[in-house]
Amino acid sequence: MTRTPVNVTVTGAAGQIGYALLFRIASGQLLGADVPVKLRLLEITPALKAAEGTAMELDDCAFPLLQGIDITDDPNVAFDGANVGLLVGARPRTKGMERGDLLEANGGIFKPQGQAINAHAADDIRVLVVGNPANTNALIAQAAAPDVPAGRFTAMTRLDHNRALTQLSKKTGVPVSEIKKLTIWGNHSATQYPDIFHATVAGKNAAEVVNDEKWLAEDFIPTVAKRGAAIIEARGASSAASAANAAIDHVHTWVNGTDEGDWVSMGIPSDGSYSVPEGLISSFPVTVKDGTYEIVQGLEINDFSRARIDASVKELEEEREAVRGLGLI
Ligand SMILES: NC(=O)c1ccc[n+]([C@@H]2O[C@H](COP(=O)([O-])OP(=O)(O)OC[C@H]3O[C@@H](n4cnc5c(N)ncnc54)[C@H](O)[C@@H]3O)[C@@H](O)[C@H]2O)c1
Ligand SMILES: O=C(O)C[C@H](O)C(=O)O
């Protein structure tokens, strides 16, 4: 194999998502079956031993694409030459804990990581923030990396997108493969807005096929938006395998592009589209070509959608104000 390996840095590598994610990256599912990878695992010092255990297991898989594993507790080492950064390590929300409570604890993690990315990452670095509150953690990391183009910092709403696909599939009886153009708008939180008004189900408009606004407002939207909390309630821990799966999907799409006639949802810095204030990291419908994403333009936003997008964006603005107040951006 002659191709230069891609350096993939994973933070929180010894955590639950890390365990579900690393083996898939090493097997080629993140970047492609012909792309060799080098893994950099970042953990806090007490978790280094656990990360070493995971690295031993990765070795034991003899993945042909895996060309090396480094383990460190120093972000400057972890992000040295990084092409892809998966920022997973954070304090997960536990039962009864509000997301807002997490801002301060996680700010202390994402600011130094943003600084390390700024100083050491490769020129083509792409960052996906998974650790919650993901949108605002991405904003914190991005603000700490002024030399990196802002658009390289993204937050994960692909899990919400995938959750919405399945709920819509169950309602309509049409397989997920035939559902296109679904959108998650706003924050990766309970205020997010899963929008089916532009989606198609087997080629037909999804809202017209469903034709049930009560289901939309009282079932579909809350089920998708509160799914994270429901998983925590059921499992006693935050979603892990499905989150890792969505992270794989997000980066794979960012690198390899969207399918013709479809789009995905990504948390990205707003350019002011759809009246989302510029700079907020909010979820939008995007298409990706040649490794570059673009917000889908020209969608008509009805009153039902407008109110819900605005509510989630308001929460993002409040989170931005809170981290500004803490001196994190
Ligand atoms: N965006 C999403 O859709 C989504 C979905 C599920 C979970 N999450 C979030 O992902 C995060 C991780 O979840 P998990 O289940 O893997 O949690 P976990 O507690 O199992 O693992 C987190 C890991 O991060 C490590 N860590 C903490 N601080 C660190 C630092 N400064 N540098 C490097 N590593 C550090 C911990 O030692 C731990 O091993 C949580 O914030 C969770 O809420 C996001
Ligand atoms: O960890 C959480 O708060 C929930 C998680 O973001 C999820 O959507 O499953």
From TrEMBL:
Single GO MF annotation: L-malate dehydrogenase (NAD+) activity
Binding-site residues for NAD(+), renumbered to this chain: 12-18, 106, 113, 130-132
Active site: 188 (proton acceptor)
The EC number(s) this enzyme carries: 1.1.1.37
GO process annotations (BP): malate metabolic process; tricarboxylic acid cycle
Ranges where the Lactate/malate dehydrogenase N-terminal domain occurs: 7-146
Family, as annotated: Belongs to the LDH/MDH superfamily. MDH type 2 family.
PANTHER family, per the entry: MALATE DEHYDROGENASE
Protein name as it appears in the record: Malate dehydrogenase
